[in-house]
Amino acid sequence: MPDRPRRIVVAITGATGAVYGVRLLQFLRDAPGIESHLILSDAAILTLHQETGLQKREVEALAHVVHKVRDVGASVASGSFQSDGMIIAPCSMKTLASVAHGLSDNLIARAADVVLKERRRLVLMVRETPFNLAHLRNMTAVTEMGGIIFPPLPSFYHQPKTIAEMVDHTVARVLDLFQIEHGLAPRWQGMQAGSTGTDAS
Fold first, then answer.
1. Among 64, 84, 108, 150, which has the highest number of CB atoms less than 10 A from its own CB?
2. Which of 198, 19, 38, 171 is nearest to 111 (CA)?
3. Which of 16, 173, 24 lies closest to 93 in space, CA to CA?
């Protein structure tokens, strides 16, 4: 019997940064041996159209399997469904709170709860600024449960020329957390000797 594909659950919420979820789905769609499972929140549909111009059906077409956010009886709601983890990209503060407090009030929060209880990898690309104390405490709670808080903060040491390059660099770091091979961004090779005029010692 052949091994199952690697299953990655991708959830997109209504926080700004919908492009991260879209880019993840685009990559996973064509990655060999990967099966993506998508959950869209109601607010995500509005944000996707506002920020990317994409319609719901266009985003759903990027995933191998689509689950309705209200369908708490979906396969991903059970620990017996074997997955390799879940990425919430982006993750709203509401969804963060639901995960931190184990509310399981929709399929996104329930699927995240399952990933945590089964000791699988959960990555939350949280989007808000500045953080208030409730946000920080919820992030601490999820971290203590074994989740990974991953704000999609752009880096500049690779000197990106476009927004797409910045997005790909962040998505590449998330894929690294799941040990998924990619060529989205160059690997850091260290600074060239003499590239700065300062003494690093």
1. 108
2. 38
3. 16
Residue written as token pair 């060999």: 32
Measured between alpha carbons, how far is 75 from 81 in angstroms, rounded to an integer? 6
Number of H helices, E strands in the chain: 7, 6
Q: How many CB atoms lie within 10 A of CB 80?
A: 7
pTM score? 0.92
- Tell me which residue of 59, 7, 11 sits closest to 33, measured CA to CA: 7
CB crowding 48-58: b at 16 or more within 10 Å, else e: beeeeebeeee
**What's the CA gap between 144 and 139, in Å, rounded?**
9
> Contact at 8 Å (CB) between 99 and 109?
yes
The answer to whether 127 and 86 are in contact (CB under 8 A) is no
Q: Looking at the chain, list the stretches that DSSP marks H as alpha helix, in order from N- to C-terminal side.
A: 18-30, 42-52, 56-60, 93-100, 107-117, 133-145, 163-177
Q: What is the pLDDT of residues 51-67, one digit of tens each?
A: 999 999 999 999 999 99
